[in-house]
Amino acid sequence: MKHTVAALVEDRPGVLNRVASLFRRRGFNIDSLAVGTTEEAGISRMTIVVEGAEGIAVQVERQLDKLIDVVAVEDLTNLETVSRELALIKVAARPDQRREILDLIQIFRAQVVDVAPNSLIVQITAAGDTLDALLENLRPYGVREMVRTGVIALTRGARTTAVPHESAEARRFHSESGRRPEGELPFVTE
Question: What pTM was estimated for this model as a whole?
Answer without folding.
Answer: 0.75
